[in-house]
Amino acid sequence: MDAAFTAEQDEIRRTLREILGKRCGPDEVKAAVRTADGYDRELWQQLSRQLGLPGIAVAEEYGGVGCGPADLALACEETGRALLPSPLLATAALCVPLITALGTDAQRSALLPSLASGGSTAALAVPGPALATALALTGEDPAGQWSGGGRAGGIQARADAAGEGWRLYGEAAQVLDGHSAPLLLVAAHAGGFARSRTLLFLVREGAPGLVRSRQTVLDETRPQARIQLRDVPAELLGAPDGEGREADVLGALAATGRTASAVLAAEAVGAAGRALARTAEYVCRREQFGRAIGSFQAVKHRLADLYVQVQAARSAAYYAAWDPDQGGLALAQALEALRMTAGEAIQLHGGIGFTWEHDAHLYFKRAASDELLFGPVHRLRAHAADRAGLFGPAPAAATHAPAPAHGPVSTVAAVAASSPAQEKVAV
């Protein structure tokens, strides 16, 4: 295995960093999140046209770039570094893999090209605060009870009277980019107690009975919406086989969760690295008692500890991009590194770090919001330990990719050493 980045990957990173450096500064981020969509549509189209950003992990036959999860993670490290508000995560990391895995040929041909080109976006709607459970990040629910479980609440699906379609009713409260995406992938419970199962459905913008409202959230760079479904017509994603069995929706969601966790880990590492670099730059500039505060030993120790933590998280994220089965641990490491780095950034910036005008709070809110959505860290680690059988037999359904010949530690060390993206921290 060659752990170094390819010339194409380095070029993606360089071009993306250059564009975001010009178009996605702190003021631009704050302006973008206050628009109706919650992101800069013009910048999104530029990233789609020049880099094919939303189509990185889409097969070429559907108009995508045809790269893999590692390339998407690499791009998300740069978007995380700039805290880019965009539908990239909801569309490319969550919805595209599900449509690719479960959709019929006709559905893939109809949906993926527009998603890959940036002409359309998609959002995954799961009921309640259950996104981490649905993606099997913090635990597994073989029965899919989080979708409704045949009881009141959740989102319920029933076949219409003619037997030619489905109707959905229920509510999803935390849908990433759900207020602006023209296409919704809705996870719903069907079959009642007799044939209880979780299915995925396609709901288009403007469907009768669909009510969407943007929510006030902690992290404005990750806009969320409340989706209400009032007897909404929907199309089943995929088709039953010859015996009437639907596809393994829960398995596809878990597989998507493993890839998404690697992407999220890379994004968090990018944010943590940028917050650390900016803090190191500030303490070298800020003077107190006639000398830069970065020259004090106590400050040096704090920054050195953060640097080690961020670099460890970066190595874990790169390894997870190669082996998504390690995504849960990498995400836990990255979220912890981002939380610690963002908190220290506020402290070391002193009085200005607490102000609304400074952007240190944006990194702290991203850390807190991601833990609420995809964590918490201790549950991510506990689930990874359960899957690995650390405290007992591993579940039969758990699968693990073979370790590289020269071992994971040397692999991530080689990847981290080869990366040109490491933030320079020198105090």
From TrEMBL:
Residues 6-118 form the Acyl-CoA dehydrogenase/oxidase N-terminal domain. Keywords: FAD, Flavoprotein, Oxidoreductase. It holds the Pfam family Acyl-CoA_dh_N. Its cofactor is FAD. Coiled coil: none annotated. InterPro entries: Acyl-CoA_Oxase/DH_mid-dom_sf, AcylCo_DH-like_C, AcylCo_DH/oxidase_C, AcylCoA_DH/ox_N, AcylCoA_DH/ox_N_sf, AcylCoA_DH/oxidase_NM_dom_sf. Residues 263-387 form the Acyl-CoA dehydrogenase/oxidase C-terminal domain. PANTHER family: ACYL-COA DEHYDROGENASE, ACYL-COA DEHYDROGENASE FADE28. Belongs to the acyl-CoA dehydrogenase family. This is Acyl-CoA/acyl-ACP dehydrogenase. The lineage of its organism: Bacteria, Bacillati, Actinomycetota, Actinomycetes, Kitasatosporales.
